[in-house]
Amino acid sequence: MPATASAPVAVTGAEGFIGSHLVEALVAAGHRVRAMVQYNSFSSYGWLETLPGEVMNDVEVVLGDVRDPGSVHGLVTGTEAVYHLAALIAIPYSYRAPHSYVETNVTGTLNVLEAVRHLGIPRLVHTSTSETYGTAQTVPISEDHPINTQSPYAASKAGGDRLADSYHASFDVPVVTLRPFNTFGPRQSMRAVIPTVIGQVAAGERTITLGDLRPTRDFSYVKDTVAAFLAVGTAPAADVVGRTFNSGTGEEISVGDLVSLIGKIMDTELEVRADQERIRPAASEVMRLVCDAGRLRAATGWAPAHTLEQGLAQTVAFFRDPLNLGRYKAGIYNV
C-alpha cells in the first residue's frame, strides 16, 4: 500500500523514554501513529500506558520486535515516515551481553532499513548517540568528529549508523540520522545519572550512590530532543536526507556539579558515596561530551527551548509524584 498524506507514521521503541514522548508529540502535531512495542507476555505497553486517552486514540500499538524482519515489515507498511528509536541502551549491560546489543542495534536497524527500502517509505529517521564519538578530541563536537567507540553499546550503535549511511549511498534510502547528546526528563530509566540522583532523593535518601563524578555531559531536556526528531522528520528532503545531525545544548556540566545542582533544586543537602559497581572500565569511560548542533540549526531552525534547570525542575516534579516513583526500584542498582 503506497504512503499517502493521511498515512500513519511508525515509531519503533515507542514504549520507552524518548519514544513515548515522541509519540505524544507526533499526535499533537496531527499524526496518527503506529507504535511498535517489544513483544512481551504481559502485554505491557510500557510508558505508553501512562499517556492520556485522547493521545492513545490516535495510536495503534503493535507488539513486535525489530530483530524480526516480518515484524518490522508489517509495522512500516503503508506509513509515510518511520522513526527508528528501538535499541538496547544501558552501557554497563553491554559489557555483560554484547551479543544482544548487536542483535538489536545492528540487525534491528538492518531490518528497518530493508523494510523502508523495499516498501518505498518516504522518510526514515534513524537514532544514533553521542557515545559513538567517545571522549571529545575537539570541542564542541561536530558531526565531523572522529568516531571512537569505547563500549560495546557505542560500537553497536555506530554499526547501525554505518548501515544507514550505506543504504542511502547504495540504494538511495531516504534516511536521516539524528545523534542526540544526553537526553533526560520524565520517564527516563534509573540507569541514567539524572533519574538515579533524583529518584534516590525522592525516595528519601540523602547519601547518593554514584560512579565517577568527573565526566562532563551535554544534557538536553527530552522535549527538545523530540523537537529535533520532528525537525529532521518533516524538513524538506533536500535539506536533511543522507545527513547526520547532532542535537544538544552546547553546554556541559560534570556529574559532580550536576549532583550539587539537583540538591539545590530539591532543597536537600546531599552526600555522594562512590560505588565501584557503577564505575566503567577506565579505557571505556567517556570523559567529556559537548555538542555542536550548528548543522541542525542551519538545516531546520531547531534550537533547544529549555535550560538545564528548567528541565531538572520538571523531572523532579515527575519523580516526586508517588505514582511515578512507585514505578521504579529506587533502592536497587540495575545494570
From TrEMBL:
The family database entries (SUPFAM superfamilies) matched by this protein are listed as: NAD(P)-binding Rossmann-fold domains
Superkingdom, according to UniProt?
A: Bacteria
Q: InterPro entries, from UniProt? A: Arna-like_SDR_e, NAD(P)-bd_dom, NAD(P)-bd_dom_sf
Q: Which UniProt keywords apply?
A: Lyase
Q: What is its EC number?
A: 4.2.1.47
* Transmembrane regions listed in the UniProt entry: none
Protein's name according to its UniProt entry: GDP-mannose 4,6-dehydratase
